[in-house]
Amino acid sequence: MNNILKSISFIFHPLIIPILGVIFYFTKSPRYIPLQIIEAKLISILILTIVLPILLYFLLKTLGKAKSIYLETTKERIFPLIVNCIVILLVINRILTANQILELYYFFIGILISTLTCLFLAILKFKVSMHMISIAGLFMFFIAISVHFSININGTLAIMCILTGAIATSRLHLKAHSNIELIIGFFVGFIPQLILLKYWL
Questions:
Q1: How far apart are CA 82 and CA 2, in angstroms?
Q2: Which residues 6+ apart lie within 8 Å of 5 measured at CB?
Q3: What's the whole-model pTM score?
Q4: End-to-end CA, the chain
Q5: How much helix, strand and coil, in percent to the nearest 5, is found in the chain?
Q6: Residue-wise pLDDT tens for the chain (201 aa)?
């Protein structure tokens, strides 16, 4: 059981959530987007949001500034979160601009707001759950896409409910977070995506 919960935490690490949202959008959007553009966007986002942070983690680990990829202390989180904010700004200014793909632009604006909130809380020495921030933001984006394009993804949303519960359970079982850290993390991820709906839905 312990290994299963560890696997859930690893598989749904916050790093992979942005690319999952982008892939979901491209698979569900009824709009025609050339395959070359989709591939270019995915590769760019993959490099910026996954490859670059992993390289940064190994650098921090080598320097003794990070013990694990989960960034277990608030002190470990501050620099990676600042870098992540810069990366997201690059994405929304160079890769997914408002005049190209509006839905994904605001998805990343929501991610930026959540990341800034997480950074502010880390500076205040409060360790909010980044796993819950990520999955909650993705969950809200899935709901918004289903409404926006009038598509039935009830099965996907049901799976997302189960995954959200499983991730919360895994973080509690592994003693990585308290109940309040998980609850606040959920709302830090969910609310920005909800508020931003008025700009594109």
A1: 32
A2: 166, 169, 170, 173, 174
A3: 0.92
A4: 41
A5: 80, 0, 20
A6: 556 655 665 666 778 889 999 999 999 998 888 999 999 999 999 999 999 888 888 888 787 777 766 677 788 888 889 989 999 999 999 999 888 899 999 999 999 999 999 999 999 999 999 999 999 999 999 999 999 999 999 999 999 999 999 888 888 887 878 889 999 999 999 999 999 999 998
Q: Which two tokens stand for residue 190?
A: 């969910």
